[in-house]
Each structure stands twice: as structure tokens, then as C-alpha cells.
Design a protein that fits this description.
Elements lengths: L1 E2 L2 E2 L3 E4 L4 E5 L10 E4 L2 H9 L6 H18 L3 H12 L6 H14 L7 H36 L7 E5 L16 H8 L4 E6 L7 H11 L3 E4 L4 H6 L5 E4 L3 E3 L4 E4 L2 H11 L3 E4 L5 E2 L5 H4 L8 H4 E5 L5 E5 L12 E4 L6 E4 L2 E3 L3 H7 L6
Parallel strand pairs: 6-7, 6-9, 7-8, 9-12, 10-13, 12-17
Antiparallel strand pairs: 1-2, 3-4, 4-5, 10-11, 11-16, 14-15, 17-18
Helix pairs in contact: 2-3, 2-4, 2-5, 3-4, 4-5, 5-6
Length: about 375
């Protein structure tokens, strides 16, 4: 995607610096900053501090972290140490573990002298695969939007609602939930996107920044407004992303997704989840019982960062002194509330049978 007319991925390899470059997303949407990630601690900090965020992007970042690790020390022992070090950064998004496991499985048979180059090549491969997976999700999701558009009076937009940011800056490129929106817009379909603010980190502002850069009409709304809009027929389709989806189709995503699914179910609004296959956790069935939910720091609740009238980016406290903020970062939407899963191989029901039929090579 483009930023001020310049094409970017969310991360890229700088051959001259011989280091990974990332967009430091802590400053978006107010300031566009990039950062060179040069040490293993840099990689861990980038993930923990949400300089990079979104399950697919975290996985790709971890793959490049393993590439750096193999450059520093290509032994089996060091690989295991770094696997643990990076895996412990964030517990919920399954792509982190998926990428580290893939790196470990691919690199263990490789002679130590060749591991550094092999690991970097694998990281590039994982990043490129993510781009293509998300592009295909967009093409498959486009069909849903086209079907709705075909029933609309001329000029009336398809009204979508999304929660959090499942856009290109949450992946390597294209995004998951936003990819169908980009494809539909580029195909000339009129859209209007309701963008949830997604407290506490207000990732909806990142979605607004993305959509605005692409010329897609949108409105930024409070997290509590979606149900009201659905009651009044102003939402045709909900599309969210996911940080981990179980083999039976339970969806773990940013806190508040479950409430959107309940509202959609109550109002007969289709609720779809854009699901790249690396985000499926085939080892887990019951998402509510089995998926660990990250509990982030209180300060994300009690303080908020923004830009004041002077153009300065600053943080302000929004709670009384001494108030403690509770901050579960994700919730789980049971599969019964999910209309369908948009994957790179097609759209399927949120069920074990449907996912297994679509991914017979992965489900084992």
C-alpha cells in the first residue's frame, strides 16, 4: 500500500543497512516513523510495545528475529533460547508461535554454517507468503461485497463495519479484513466503512488512516455505536480480523469483537472473519476455555495519546488519580455467532468440518 504516494510494506529488509526496517506504529496516525530493528532486544521490544502489531505481522517479525539469531549464533541451543525469548513476548496471537515453529523445523536440519542465510531466506518467504495470502482473502471477500452491491439502488454504498485494525499495517501488506474493502473500492464499488475506535489503543484510528489514504469513505465511531447502527439498518456486513481461530471456528480477536458479533446476530447482519491459514490453531478446539488472553498494562486504560491543537503528540490521563485500569486485550467469539470465515482458499462455515475440508493438508 502507499503512504503519501510511496509504496510501503509494514516491514522490509534494507540490504544497505543489512537490517529489518519497520513502521513504528505507536505514532500513527499522527506521525509516520520508521525504525531499524538491529538486536534481539529490539525485536522483543517491537512486539511487546506494539511498534508492530497484528497477528500476521508479529509472525513475520519473529521470523526475521530468528534470522538475526542465526547470524549471531547458529547453534541448536541458541535457536531454542531465542524461540523462548520471542515466544514470550505476546501470548495470544498464534502466528508468533507458528512462525517460530516453522523456522525451527526448517533450520534444525540445516548445517550451522548455512543457517544464517537459510533463515533470512525463510523470513523473506514468510513475508511474501503473507502478502499473497491477504491478497487472496481480499479477492474471496470481494464476492460478498459484490453480492450486496448488486442488490443496492444505484449509487447507494455497501455499508461495512470493522473492529480494531486488520489492515495492511497489521500484516505485511493488504491486510485481512481490509483487503476485501481495497479490492471492492478498486473495482469501482461504492463503500462506506464504519470504523470502531477500538479502545484502549484506538487502533480504529489506524484503520481510518489507511482507508483515508486509499480514498475509501468511512466514519470513525465509538465502540458502543455499532449495535445502534445495526438496529437502524445502516450496516450490511461486518468483517473483522482474528489473532487466533480454533479448529472448530471460535474466533479470538481484539476485545469488543464478541459484542459486535452479538449485535450482528441479534439484528440479522452477516458477521464474517478474515482468516489467514497461519492464524488457525489446530491444537485448540474451545476458544473460551483454551486460548490464553493477554492482560496488558493498566496505563493503556488510564491514559490516552493524541495530538493537541498545537500539533504536539502527547499523552493525557483520563481517570482519577489512583484508579486501576483492567485491560484484557482480546475476547473470543463462539463459532455459532460467525456467519463465515474468509480464507485464502475460499469462504467456509465456522466449523471444524468446513475448515478441515478447506485445509486438509494443515489440519493434522
Amino acid at each position: 500500500m502507499k503512504v503519501n504516494g510511496t509504496p510501503y510494506r509494514s516491514l522490509w529488509w534494507d540490504a544497505e543497512k543489512d537490517a529489518l526496517q519497520i513502521i513504528d506504529q505507536r505514532w500513527l496516525p499522527h506521525d509516520f516513523r520508521t525504525q531499524s530493528v538491529e538486536t534481539l532486544q529490539d525485536f522483543a521490544d517491537a512486539i511487546v510495545q506494539m511498534r508492530v502489531r497484528g497477528a500476521p505481522l508479529i509472525g513475520a517479525t519473529a521470523a526475521y528475529g530468528m534470522a538475526l539469531a542465526m547470524r549471531l549464533d547458529p547453534t541448536d541451543a541458541h535457536m531454542k533460547t531465542v524461540w523462548d525469548f520471542l515466544h514470550n513476548t505476546r501470548p495470544t496471537a498464534i502466528n508468533l508461535r507458528w512462525a517460530l515453529n516453522r523456522c525451527q523445523a526448517a533450520l534444525l536440519p540445516v548445517p550451522e554454517a548455512d543457517r544464517a542465510s537459510a533463515a533470512l531466506a525463510l523470513a523473506h518467504e514468510i513475508a511474501d507468503e503473507d502478502v499473497e495470502i491477504n491478497r487472496q482473502i481480499g479477492l474471496n471477500g470481494l464476492q460478498l461485497i459484490q453480492d450486496i452491491a448488486a442488490k443496492k439502488p444505484d449509487g447507494e454504498p455497501v455499508r461495512l463495519l470493522t473492529h480494531c485494525n486488520a489492515g495492511w499495517i497489521a500484516t505485511v501488506d493488504w491486510g485481512t479484513a481490509t483487503s476485501p474493502m481495497y479490492h471492492a473500492h478498486d473495482a469501482g464499488i461504492a463503500l462506506h466503512v464504519w470504523v470502531d475506535e477500538t479502545r484502549p489503543r484506538n487502533q480504529g484510528a489506524l484503520t481510518s488512516w489507511e482507508l483515508g489514504s486509499h480514498g475509501i469513505a468511512h466514519t470513525y465511531i465509538t465502540d458502543n455505536a455499532g449495535g445502534h447502527l445495526m438496529q437502524h439498518g445502516q450496516v450490511d456486513l461486518v468483517i473483522t480480523g482474528t489473532d487466533r481461530t480454533t479448529r472448530r471456528g471460535d474466533v479470538c480477536n481484539k476485545i469488543g469483537t464478541y459484542l459486535k458479533a452479538l449485535a450482528a446476530h441479534d439484528n440479522g447482519v452477516p458477521f464474517y472473519v478474515a482468516l489467514p491459514s497461519p492464524t488457525i490453531d489446530w491444537t485448540v478446539s474451545d476458544g473460551i476455555a483454551e486460548i490464553p488472553i493477554e492482560d496488558r498494562g493498566s496505563r493503556e486504560i488510564t491514559h490516552i495519546m493524541g495530538r493537541n491543537d498545537m500539533g504536539e503528540i502527547s499523552e493525557v490521563q483520563v481517570t482519577p488519580d489512583g484508579t486501576t485500569g483492567g485491560n484484557p486485550a482480546f475476547d473470543v467469539t463462539p463459532n455459532r455467532l460467525v456467519t463465515g470465515l474468509i480464507t485464502e482458499r475460499g469462504i467456509c462455515d465456522a466449523s471444524e468440518d468446513a475448515l478441515t475440508a478447506l485445509f486438509p493438508d494443515l489440519c493434522g
